[in-house]
Specification:
Elements lengths: L9 H13 L4 E5 L6 H13 L16 H4 L3 H6 L1 H4 L6 H7 L6 E4 L10 H11 L9 E5 L7 H12 L5 E7 L7 H4 L3 E4 L5 H10 L4 H10 L4 H8 L6 H9 L6 H11 L3 H24 L8 H11 L4 H19 L4 H16 L3
Parallel strand pairs: 1-4, 1-5, 2-3, 3-4
Helix pairs in contact: 1-2, 7-8, 10-11, 13-16, 14-18, 15-16, 15-17, 17-18
Length: about 350
């Protein structure tokens, strides 16, 4: 089966595929934390619908081994021409893997942009209005939907209110609250949970990571497969640096808060991840103080540092600091300035630590 990469979400895929085969909605909202596999599930569903040899759960494309999908640039795709003949995929799956299927539209935020542009949405809507040429229907995957501005959402709303009968839309977001109520109400909501430590550990081991390192990275990944895979390349979250900064919370001033904001909250994505990590740290410390137990989701070294840090803060200080971190995370998800939110967070933590 070509679905072995759907760690933790195979059940969601199976239920949605059954629904699409019987009474599908015209549009779905796939909501859940970043990096947990929402786009992968949508890609698998689209493959199931466009596969010309074996549509359904047995679609012939095997994404993790497909040489055409692995070829990112035009020159690489040209060099992979011979490999295409032996990849085993049908023409529909090969076109989808190489991003040229005429009936599939994929829209996401460009790397150098902070949002999905209204022009991208309008182009997607125009394509959805055309009759399908190869697949049973036109299929659109709109990723990073939390970055859509109000005009772009209003443009999408018109299509959601009067959808083409031959079209199916998948809207993917890390924050459903960032969408207008009128948009959300016209989408069939599917919520995705964060992955468990064991599931991420299994994923990393399947990618060739040694067991001990896979266990450590799975605990740091905080439910995100994408975060775990990025850490394999050496991009581990700044756990130790944040713990060191929190140890000095009582003496932290605005100059230091600005420096921390610059270092760990420079971009919106980095800020969102760091706010989440800080909130999790305070959550762990609260559980330690309330339950007096160990940390099942942390390595022994991390657990020792969290326990030491918890002894520095009083209960009310922890509660106030965690509330500030959660609010900052929500504000950034709502497109607030990440550095400003970071400065305010650190000053709020300092104020709480000094019991002011």
């Amino acid at each position: 089966m070509p679905l072995s990469a759907l760690f933790g979400h195979r059940g969601v895929y199976d239920r949605l595929l059954a629904e699409l085969s019987s009474r599908p909605s015209h549009a779905y909202l796939m909501s859940g934390p970043r990096g947990i596999g929402k786009s992968l599930v949508v890609s698998a569903l689209i493959h199931s619908l466009v596969c010309e040899r074996s549509p359904g759960a047995g679609f012939c494309c095997t994404p993790e081994r497909c040489p055409t999908r692995a070829s990112a640039t035009a020159s690489e795709r040209a060099r992979a021409k011979a490999a295409r003949e032996t990849c085993g995929c049908c023409p529909g799956c090969v076109q989808l893997a190489t991003g040229v299927h005429p009936d599939v539209i994929q829209v996401r935020r460009a790397e150098d942009r902070s949002d999905v542009l209204i022009e991208q949405v309008r182009a997607m809507i125009a394509q959805l209005g055309l009759r399908p040429t190869r697949a049973p229907m036109r299929l659109a995957m709109l990723d990073d939907a939390e970055t859509l501005n109000v005009p772009a959402q209003n443009a999408l709303l018109k299509t959601l209110e009067e959808p083409p009968g031959h079209a199916l839309i998948f809207v993917i977001t890390a924050s459903e609250q960032a969408l207008l109520d009128t948009v959300r109400s016209r989408l069939r909501l599917v919520r995705f949970r964060a992955l468990g430590v064991e599931e991420i550990e299994q994923l990393l081991i399947s990618r060739g990571v040694e067991t001990a390192r896979a266990q450590a990275l799975a605990r740091l990944a905080r439910g995100s497969a994408a975060r775990a895979l990025s850490m394999v390349e050496g991009e581990e979250p700044p756990f130790h640096a944040l713990v060191a900064a929190l140890r000095q919370a009582r003496t932290l001033d605005f100059t230091r808060a600005q420096a921390l904001a610059q270092e760990f909250f420079a971009s919106r994505a980095q800020a969102a991840e760091t706010f989440e990590l800080i909130a999790r740290l305070f959550e762990e410390m609260l559980c330690y103080k309330l339950l007096g137990s160990g940390f099942t989701g942390s390595s022994p070294e991390m657990a020792a540092q969290i326990a030491e840090l918890a002894d520095i803060f009083q209960m009310d200080e922890l509660l106030a600091s965690m509330e500030a971190a959660v609010k900052a995370h929500a504000a950034v998800e709502g497109m607030a300035n990440p550095r400003l939110q970071a400065e305010q967070l650190w000053m709020a933590v300092a104020q709480a630590a000094r019991s002011e």
